[in-house]
Amino acid sequence: MRGLTSTIILLVVLAGLVGYVYFADAPPAAETKPKAFEVSAENIEEVQIRNAEGETARAQRIDTSWQVVEPVKADADASEVAAITSGLASLEVQRVVDEKPADVKQYGLEPARIEVAFRARDQKDFRRLLIGEKTPTGGDLYARTPDQGRVFLISSYLESTFNKNAFNLRDKAILKFDRDKADTVELGGAFPMQFTRQGTEWRIAKPIAARADYAAVEGLVTRLSSAQMQQIVAPEATDLRLYGLDSPASRVDVGTGSARATLLVGKPNAEELPYAKDASRPAVFTIEKALMTDLSKPVGDFRRKDVFDFRSFTANRVELRRESGTQTFEKTKSADGKEVWRDGAGKTPETAKVDELLTHLTNLRAQSFEAATHPSLKTPALTAILQFDDGKKMETVTFGRAGTDVYSARADEPGAAKLEAGMTFDEAIKALDALK
């Protein structure tokens, strides 16, 4: 009995030690820091900023969107304003450093280096945040509010949030259109081109009729919709000749149904940044040099490089013509309802071998394009006629050899394509021979 009592006592002591160790080593509860302002970002309707350079800007919420109203009138950058309003609503006082400062100059607060004012819904008066210098360690900023004398610290990363000018606050999109509804893109300049969307595919309409590389055209549309002004040169330009915009070096038209957005690109400035202008707005601005490079690409960069549109799993019928004869394969259903391939003699070749052939054909890609038909295509090494998508689509591609080079031509596109170097075409021929 005494042994049992001792055991119980030891267990109680052990439990106490475990509890002590757990609570002693447990991380302290996160400190809840007080907010500088009691306000929600959604209730802020006006923001005024005087930045570190002394520039001022003011933005207002009008209906459901923000507008820059001073020193210019323009649409606001929603993400920039949201960062400011969210920053004010979530602003935490890291630590109070001086409850009753005798002199706030030592903190860079007289005058304040940065001043942010805001007005909430249904309020007339602005509330203000004054921001001074960084602390010696650089981790925080000195700050205060005029209605309270104390000086406190806020996180230093907030300087990039609040230290803004009018250009930072305004919408800097160079061209305004509904990116998801874009169905035509026309490029003027050194290489005039036109792209049209047909369903889920893009096609080249000018200077040739050809398939477009979907990713390349979509990338261009995305670039145009997301490109930003580098600098506003003239908010209300009156003489476009100064910027080479009276006779633009390049022009971009993006169609969205019946609507049309037009970007004019002029000559470069001293830093080689091209001047540009949205035709619907008066401002002249500069754009990235790289954007002008994108707009000057030749049509070959936008052509689809895949020689075939079909994929091995969409093919229904294959006809392959060579000097030695023609081989055909057609997908049908066997007596038990399974899909099988039959050749021209009614035999059923191995499905894996047909799939291997089709895979080699779909892997063929163009390295470059030529405007004229290559001489090797007059005596074809292979002509492939493919039916796919349940027989709804058909494509014909002819291949020719010139030494180690292989060229192809599609019946629905002009000129020829030089195929990428490699063994893919030879592998397709070997796979075809294996099916004899």
Could you explain the architecture of this structure?
With 436 residues, the chain is of the alpha+beta class. 20% of the residues lie in helices and 36% in strands. Strand 2 and strand 3 (65-70) form a beta hairpin. Helix 7 (351-362) runs antiparallel to helix 8 (424-433). The longest helix has 24 residues, at 2-25. The chain is elongated.
Brief synopsis:
With 436 residues, the chain is an alpha+beta fold.
Task: Give the rounded overall mean pLDDT.
Answer: 92
With strands numbered from the N-terminus, the spatial order across the biggest sheet is: 4-3-2-1-6-7-8-9-5
Radius of gyration: 35 Å
Number of helices: 8
Topology:
Layout: H1 2-25, E1 44-50, E2 56-62, E3 65-70, E4 74-75, H2 78-89, E5 95-98, E6 114-120, E7 127-134, E8 140-145, E9 148-155, H3 159-162, H4 166-169, E10 184-187, E11 193-198, E12 201-206, E13 210-211, H5 214-226, E14 231-234, E15 250-256, E16 259-268, E17 274-278, E18 284-286, H6 289-295, E19 315-322, E20 325-333, E21 339-343, H7 351-362, E22 366-370, E23 382-388, E24 393-402, E25 405-410, E26 416-419, H8 424-433
Antiparallel strand pairs: 1-2, 1-6, 2-3, 3-4, 5-9, 6-7, 7-8, 8-9, 10-11, 10-15, 11-12, 12-13, 14-18, 15-16, 16-17, 17-18, 19-20, 19-23, 20-21, 22-26, 23-24, 24-25, 25-26
Helix pairs in contact: 7-8
